[in-house]
Backbone:
């Protein structure tokens, strides 16, 4: 009988334990749901955590972290006393306490919260109440589950903190990179603006009548005020010089049509009448389907350069004229001889005509011949004077079709007496059918005059040996024009003089200015040719230059 009673009691006790276990399992499920809600509420917790470093919970003092565990469990006990009167959810506040402790204070305080939660449940809420009983199998399962949940929450919390730390570091690095790139871009923009200001170069982008962009220097070049906004294309076109407007529009339209870049020069006129010279390089930009997106245009203000080039050209012309006059002064005796020859001949023919007229009967046929010869010699003297005046006269440069062989023969005639006085024999070798060259006849004659006079003066210093000056003119297919050579039998050129021969103010003659050859090279290069010198064997030097044909 007693055994039956004891068996019924054991069965009843086991049934009670199973019921309690089912209740706890149900509570655990509810608690797991609550934990999920806690994790989803992490965005709200993150705002609280912004007041500390989220990389680790150990930033708090140890006593404070473990104090959080005690406080969390105490709050859970209070909530359970309240909830026991209304709900059967004993485990939920303790699981929330454990989760909050692990989340904010770390795993160590979380373990303390688990122990305190188990003891609190055992003492306050499990039979017999307000006393400790041995931990049952059910309590062991609960303890294990709580530890697992705590570890899971701790791992999630740590992972979240690490992710937040990495995100914060990435954000800080990104902000630093953006700040650095922004500063670098600002520096680059300042340097670019300064470079554009120094080089008078600006950039603009436009399409049709719409201007998308204009650099600071573009506004300065065109005389627009950036504070008034981007001007329209019509206003810009009105400032282009009327003589250049149609040509510029045609070149841009052709570049867009052919999808190629363009390079041109034009003038603009500012409201105050100032004229500026611009050089422009533009590039049309097209989309993938071939439609015009914009035209990017770089413009350089070359007004000062144009003025400087004009002043250099004027100075060069003045210097070249001075050199020409000085050279002609050296040939005074030769020119006098060239003029005296036809004058003397004319006087002789005039005396003969008088004799023919005083004869009895007068010989009118001989008189007529003498008068014809007088006219011929007078014209010859006039031609010599005209050539001298043309060489000495200061006239603007011209571009004509010049018969180079005839121009050279005139210079040889002017220097014939100078060559004879220095015992120099002159030989010429001109090819037949020479093309005409494009250039200024007087300037080309000045080059020949300098080269011939230099050659004659170079041969003054040689004692024994022939003094020969050879002048040759040939067609030069490789250069597309003619080649002229002046060769002497003087002492030749040293390696030092050869390297510095065409430098301004370099001369080997005591009375020389050192500008003749430099001016000659400038003249030839301005004609699109080149001038150079080579030593000859066994002695002498050869000066050659090329001139393009018309």
Residues:
């Amino acid at each position: 009988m007693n055994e039956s009673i004891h068996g019924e009691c054991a069965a009843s006790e086991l049934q009670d334990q199973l019921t309690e276990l089912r209740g706890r399992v149900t509570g655990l499920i509810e608690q797991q749901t609550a934990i999920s809600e806690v994790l989803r509420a992490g965005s709200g917790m993150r705002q609280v955590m912004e007041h500390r470093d989220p990389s680790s919970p150990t930033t708090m003092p140890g006593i404070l972290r473990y104090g959080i565990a005690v406080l969390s469990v105490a709050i859970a006990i209070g909530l359970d006393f309240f909830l026991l009167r209304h709900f059967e959810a004993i485990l939920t506040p303790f699981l929330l306490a454990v989760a909050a402790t692990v989340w904010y204070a770390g795993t160590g305080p979380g373990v303390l919260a688990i122990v305190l939660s188990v003891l609190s449940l055992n003492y306050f809420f499990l039979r017999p109440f307000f006393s400790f009983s041995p931990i049952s199998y059910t309590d062991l399962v609960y303890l294990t589950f709580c530890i697992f949940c705590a570890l899971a929450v701790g791992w999630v919390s740590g992972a979240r903190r690490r992710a937040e730390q990495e995100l914060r570091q990435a954000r800080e690095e990104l902000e630093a990179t953006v700040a650095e790139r922004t500063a670098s871009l600002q520096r680059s923009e300042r340097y670019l603006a300064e470079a554009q200001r120094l080089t008078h170069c600006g950039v603009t982008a436009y399409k049709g009548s719409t201007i998308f962009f204009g650099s600071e220097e573009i506004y300065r070049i065109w005389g627009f005020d950036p504070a008034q906004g981007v001007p329209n294309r019509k206003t810009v076109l009105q400032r282009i010089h009327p003589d250049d407007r149609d040509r510029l529009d045609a070149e841009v339209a052709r570049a867009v049509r052919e999808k190629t870049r363009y390079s041109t020069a034009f003038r603009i006129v500012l409201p105050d009448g100032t004229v500026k010279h611009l050089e422009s390089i533009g590039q049309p930009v097209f989309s993938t389907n071939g439609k015009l997106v914009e035209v990017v245009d770089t413009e350089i203000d070359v007004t000062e350069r144009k003025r400087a080039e004009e002043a250099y050209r004027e100075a060069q012309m003045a210097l070249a004229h001075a050199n020409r006059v000085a050279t002609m002064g050296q040939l005074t005796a030769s020119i006098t001889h060239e003029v005296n020859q036809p004058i003397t001949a004319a006087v002789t023919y005039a005396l003969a005509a008088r004799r023919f007229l005083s004869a009895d009967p007068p010989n009118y046929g001989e008189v007529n011949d003498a008068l014809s010869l007088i006219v011929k010699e007078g014209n010859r003297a006039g031609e010599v004077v005209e050539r001298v005046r043309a060489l000495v006269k200061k006239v603007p440069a011209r571009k004509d079709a010049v018969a180079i062989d005839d121009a050279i023969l005139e210079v040889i005639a002017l220097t014939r007496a100078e060559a004879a006085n220095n015992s120099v024999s002159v030989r010429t070798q001109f090819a037949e059918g020479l093309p005409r060259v494009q250039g200024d006849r007087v300037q080309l004659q000045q080059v020949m005059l300098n080269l011939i006079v230099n050659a004659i003066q170079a041969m003054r210093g040689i004692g024994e040996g022939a003094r020969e000056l050879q002048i040759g003119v040939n067609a030069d297919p490789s250069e597309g024009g003619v080649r002229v050579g002046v060769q002497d039998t003087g002492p030749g050129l040293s390696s030092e003089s050869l390297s510095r021969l065409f430098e301004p103010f370099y001369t080997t003659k005591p009375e020389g200015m050192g500008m003749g050859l430099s001016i000659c090279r400038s003249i030839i290069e301005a004609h699109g040719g080149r001038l150079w010198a080579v030593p000859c064997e066994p002695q002498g030097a050869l000066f050659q230059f090329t001139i393009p044909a018309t």
